[in-house]
TrEMBL record:
Top-level lineage group: Bacteria
GO MF terms held by the record: nucleic acid binding
Protein name per Swiss-Prot or TrEMBL: Uncharacterized protein
InterPro entries attached to this UniProt entry: RNaseH-like_sf, RNaseH_sf
SUPFAM superfamilies in the record: Ribonuclease H-like (SSF53098)
Length: 276
């Protein structure tokens, strides 16, 4: 059994977990400048925008399903149907997982769902998404490993950890050709996006013990106090205590992923004196 299989989420978990990745076409502007400082600052005025960046490809898979779903703006129905399908998929998810998801994929998609993009005729009219939680594997690497992991790109991490990773690189010129109608480039870039989804799930599983704030996982009939919030398997009490500034908490350790959790029920007060 490999590491990712050992750290996999309990199949009885009820939460719907969606692994997500997007690809975009870049923006184009008319660049006017007075001196070299303008080139350094690169402030973009709306009046100079010819084309805004927009999402053109979305690949996603449910954590517990083997198949990767592929959506593109050149599918039948055009950009409107493409965004509607992606919106409907995200609306069914309880947890979204991705690499740089919080700063890139999610805000980009929310913008695509609700705002028109300069350079494309489509005018979106989709409703707000229902609430969901996110797990950003890039944030996990930055918060838990800091300078201990100097390379934090998805490709670099997967190579370092031995996770099957993408075999291609993003090519902005290929995206231009894809938007213009090149079938070969459309297939290539969608395959690239699909590879990122598969790699992200492998990284998500590998990092599982380090995802401290993972959204709670629920299993019917299980005591919520002893279910590991990371993988949904049973957690057992440990003799150690989690000590905060004033209170101490009982700690549990997962029998599967070995991650630690603390119980916030009846914490013990360690001191009534604090430094000022």
């Amino acid at each position: 059994m490999g590491l990712t299989e050992k750290l996999a989420i309990n199949p009885k978990v009820r939460n719907r977990i969606l692994i997500l990745d997007v690809e975009r076409v870049n923006g184009i502007t008319l660049q006017h400048w007075w001196d070299r400082k303008d080139l350094q600052k690169r402030y973009i005025h709306h009046e100079t925008v010819i084309r805004e960046p927009r999402t053109t490809i979305v690949c996603a898979k449910w954590y517990d399903q083997p198949d990767v779903m592929r959506f593109t703006e050149w599918d039948k129905g055009g950009r409107g149907q493409f965004l509607k399908r992606v919106h409907g998929l995200m609306a069914r998810a309880d947890i979204l997982v991705g690499h740089n998801l919080d700063n890139a994929d999610v805000p980009w998609l929310v913008g695509d769902f609700h705002l028109p993009r300069e350079g494309h005729k489509h005018r979106p009219s989709l409703p707000p998404l229902p609430p969901f939680k996110t797990v950003d594997t890039l944030k996990v690497m930055r918060s838990q490993f800091k300078s201990g992991a100097p390379f934090k790109s998805l490709d670099a991490l997967c190579k370092l950890l031995g996770i099957p990773a993408k075999t291609d690189v993003y090519d902005p010129e290929a995206m231009e050709r894809a938007v213009a109608g090149s079938v070969e480039d459309r297939v290539r870039l969608t395959d690239y996006c699909e590879g990122d989804v598969i790699a992200t799930q492998g990284l998500y599983d590998t990092l599982r013990p380090y995802i401290k704030n993972h959204p709670a996982l629920f299993i019917d009939g299980k005591n919520k106090l002893t279910v590991c919030n990371r993988c949904g398997h049973e957690a057992e009490p440990t003799p150690r205590k989690y000590v905060a500034n004033v209170l101490s908490y009982s700690m549990l350790r997962c029998t599967n992923c070995q991650g630690y959790t603390r119980l916030s029920i009846e914490p013990e007060r360690m001191s009534i004196v604090r430094g000022v």
